[in-house]
Design a protein that fits this description.
Length: about 230
């Protein structure tokens, strides 16, 4: 694992060194100055309190399962948080990890298929103040300060092991995802074929897409923005 005192973005660090870095190299920092989120958002994290890590995947077999990689990463982080004693851990499709209805981890996958995938993971560990954001941290949930470097090493080990056995584990991963699924049976809105529609989330498919019940049909959704519709 490459540990950096400071970096703009661990995902970018890998992107700029794709040829030098080996398959499964992991980059970690507690001081990410320009973190990237999904759909053009930023990922902001107080210095020296949290985990920012990225894992480089160059393995063809894993890259073929791009959509599942995203799902697997969410499941690994969620299960890890449960082992630390956090309650009410859930995954909001595709891979945001929530605890007690607050976001605790964000995952950003970037890549150029079939060459590589970068799995970027941000986990709030010891930060306690999130201002206006609906967010939480390990410290806020269990009251204990944990070394972010240990969290990164643990997640890296478990994630690598799970990815290496992806082929044989798809069914159990999907089952596990569905147990953790924050959206299951909830009404969601999203854009589909140019229209903004509402449907009921019904779990995920083998390719990692979201199954949605819409006008009595199950459709598969792969859009990046799915919103929960809060019924009055
Ligand atoms: C999101 O929730 O929008 C995804 C956030 C992803 C943040 C992580 S932190 C490590 C890696 N490097 C980045 O610049 N972003 C990801």
């Amino acid at each position: 694992m490459i540990k950096l005192n400071e970096v703009n973005s661990t995902n970018n660090y890998i992107k700029e060194r794709l040829n030098e870095l080996d398959n499964f190299e992991c980059v970690f920092t507690m001081n990410q100055t320009n973190g990237k989120g999904r759909t053009g958002h930023t990922w902001v994290s107080e210095p020296n309190k949290n985990v920012a890590m990225s894992l480089l995947i160059k393995d063809d077999k894993i890259i073929k399962n791009f959509n599942l990689v995203s799902i697997v990463t969410g499941v690994v982080v969620a299960e890890y948080l449960e082992t630390l004693g956090l309650n009410k851990v859930a995954i909001k499709w595709p891979n945001d990890v929530y605890v007690n209805e607050k976001k605790i981890c964000g995952i950003l996958l970037e890549g150029n298929i079939p060459e590589y995938i970068i799995i970027g993971i941000g986990i709030n560990v010891n930060q306690t103040n999130f201002g206006e954001l609906n967010a939480s941290s390990i410290k806020n949930e269990i009251g204990i300060k944990i070394d972010p470097a240990l969290v990164a090493v643990d997640i890296n080990d478990i994630l690598l092991d799970t990815l290496r056995h992806l082929d044989t584990n798809v069914n159990s991963l999907i089952e596990r995802y569905e147990e953790l699924d924050y959206l299951l049976n909830k009404t969601i809105s999203f854009s589909y074929k140019g229209e903004n529609i509402e449907g009921i989330a019904k779990g995920i498919d083998f390719d990692g897409s979201l199954k949605v019940l819409y006008k009595n049909n199950l459709i598969n959704v792969n859009t990046s923005e799915v919103n929960l519709v809060r019924k009055a």
